[in-house]
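Before a colleague's protein record goes any further, I have to sign it off. My question to you is simply how this chain folds and whether the tokens agree. I do not need a full report, just your reasoning and any doubts. This is what I was given:
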Amino acid sequence: MSISSFNAKHAPLAPQAPGLLPLTSKSLGALWAIAALALAIAAFAGAGISARFENPAFVVLALTCVAFVFLHGMMRYSLKVMLVFLVITSFWALFWENLSVFTGFPFGWYHYDDSFGPKLLQAPYFLTVAYFQYVYLAWTMAHIVLGRYTNKIEGAWTFVLPLVATFIIVMFDNVFDPYNSTMVGHYVWHSGGAYFGVPFSNYLGWYLCTWTMFQSFALYKHWTQTRSEPEPTVLFEPSYWLANVATYLSWLVLFLVKGFTVDPTITLHTMDGLTWNEAALLQTAGIIGIATMGFIALLSLLKILALREVPQNHRR
């Protein structure tokens, strides 16, 4: 199946389940346009052309990814399911973040500044948007890596998919947390930490926090799906999955570019009294990102290429 097979009127390739956006050249084109925009914003923000626009560009990138996620998700699931996904990620994000600010569990002791805007107790509402797009991108990458081109979640996959997705999203956190905390100060670790001012406990907390999101959604899908539920045509369109890989990589592009555009003499200080080099922080994030996120993206590309070779009548 290929985008080139669509007719001039952009009609769907096959009947779609109720509530889904149809798979057409227009819908796929829009998906790729948003993915390309995310990559462009990431490159712009990373290049540091103007410090005045750096933080707004970061927010715009997150919102662009949210737009991508909604469009991508509504071609696969439905608006109702995507709203459930948003509610699940938002609930757990605000729950775990507030719990840790007040008790130190599970991430460690820290607090947010006011740069992310209004808060529910001590956790910014913006976290609901941030987690939503991170989690969906990682959830979809897990499907690709495992070759699960299906909406059905049955048997062991109910627990395997959330586990793999959790490891994929923590790879992402390894890349951006030192930047968000030590470099720009969106949140401050009270006792610093070994990884450019970020404590080891933060990453253990991310495993727990994001796993609850993935597992909750997997159980929701498992309990609400029906055996007669049709599989959307889009699940067998390679370019649909490739667009997710491209958007997932936009965050890595930001740090790769930024690591070579900052002043290499700038230093940063954390609450534990240690001094860190800003360029080293960003370039280390880039190195880790290539070895983790980059590897997942490469593996996903190979899996998607294998999907192209599956005969049409064997796709399930």
In short: The longest strand covers residues 110-112. The radius of gyration is 20 Å.
